[in-house]
Amino acid sequence: MKFDVKNKTVLVTGANRGIGKVILEEALSRGAVKVYAAVRKLESAQPLVAEHGDRVVPVRIDLDDPSSITAAAQQASDVDVVVNNAGVLKQSAAVDADAIESLQFEMNANVYGLMRVAQAFAPVLAANGGGALVQLNSVASVKTFAEMATYCASKAASYSITQGLRDSLKANGTAVVSVHPGPIQTDMGQEAGFGDSAASPSLVAQSIFDALAAGEFHAWPDPMAEQIGAAYESFAKNVVEADMQESLS
């Protein structure tokens, strides 16, 4: 399903910095009439309001607080596009002493958070004609890096849920996009040690709205992501995006 963000209302989680902030700005530049800046602390969105005026509306969403998500869905009842960008990263290998705790922390935000957002906003999107749900996954969804194995596991799980959402929400006319960046220049990227070779967040933002406009499920924004996406393309098209219900019955 193709979707044009022009004259639409968008919500972006984690919108106060990093990739989320650039997604918000890209949405406005492409003609979105309003963007809900979903943040844990409302005051963190004030610089965005100061810059963009009433086209930016702060709303509280804390992925650790399910009630904040349901409240946000009630407040943003006019939303057409939900971009679930917020997530967490721990540097834990599977054999590290803190690996289980790290995975629990990452699963709560990266997987359960996505599910809570989808459950809260799917009815809103359906009521507004369908719209779109965008999930920030990662190249780590399809490739595990040993030093951050728990993060990769959480992103593989969120990618699996995103695939399920694509099929579940199709009946409501809701487009779903799964975004798979490689190393990106953000605070999280710096903490992970990605260094100067990391790509610009603007590539991620552009790829989201390009994928929506083209009706694509997968978005591979940056050079590393493009390389992995090219190798993965056949499986993605012939298995992930294929209707296999008939062959499984």
From TrEMBL:
EC number: 1.1.1.100
Record has Oxidoreductase as a keyword: yes
Pfam families, A to Z: adh_short
SUPFAM superfamilies assigned: NAD(P)-binding Rossmann-fold domains
Keyword annotations: Oxidoreductase
InterPro entries associated with the record: NAD(P)-bd_dom_sf, Sc_DH/Rdtase_CS, SDR_fam
Annotated TM spans: none
Gene Ontology MF: a single term: 3-oxoacyl-[acyl-carrier-protein] reductase (NADPH) activity
PANTHER family associated with the record: NADPH-DEPENDENT 1-ACYLDIHYDROXYACETONE PHOSPHATE REDUCTASE
Family label: Belongs to the short-chain dehydrogenases/reductases (SDR) family.
Protein name, entry field: 3-oxoacyl-[acyl-carrier-protein] reductase FabG
Gene name tied to this protein: fabG_6
